Amino acid sequence: MPELTYQTTEPLVLSPVGVQTNSFMPTADTDYKRGDLLVLSAEGALTHTADHADWTVVCLDDCTAAQANKQIEAKVGISVYTHGEINLNAVTANGTLLNDTQKTTARAHSALSTSITLRKPQNGKGV
User: Fold this and answer.
1) What predicted TM-score, i.e. pTM, was given to this entire model?
2) Apex CA 8: angle with CA 5 and CA 12, to 5°?
């Protein structure tokens, strides 16, 4: 009998209440990972956060650079979270989990400037 290996990830959404999504244009030749903190420009283009204090939305799904280019060509954006309770322990910058200092910065920014609440899960569980 083959041996099975399971991989689990932290839930990204902590509560379905108030969650809202939208789609915006990715930047060409750019990879996006589920949970990435992204900056939405006034023109509706998505880029990665530079300092964890400038983000506005959270990436909903992985998207490779090739997929991003196809989305741009088709004039179809990629999906992001715009509102809701998001797991602070699951958000990333360019696919890398945030360290404690980055989490503090990102959480402060969310409280002051976004419609997303970054918080730690209670009892280690989300939705």
Assistant:
1) 0.89
2) 160
Burial of 106 (0-12, 13-18, 19+ CB in 10 A): buried
DSSP letters, 66-114, are: HHHHHHHHTT--EEEEEEEEEETTT-EETTEE--HHHHHHHHHHHHHH-
Give the span between the Cα atoms of 90 and 96, in whole angstroms. Answer: 10
Given the candidates 3.30.450.40, 2.40.300.10, 1.10.540.10, 3.20.20.370, the CATH classification of the domain at 13-119 is: 2.40.300.10
Q: Hey, where are the domains in the chain? A: 13-119
Backbone angles phi, psi at 66, to 5 degrees: -65, -40
Tens digits of per-residue pLDDT, 43-73?
Answer: 999 999 999 999 999 999 999 999 999 999 9
CA angle 11, 15, 48 (to 5 degrees): 55
Facing residues of 57 across strands? Answer: 38
Residue count of the chain:
127
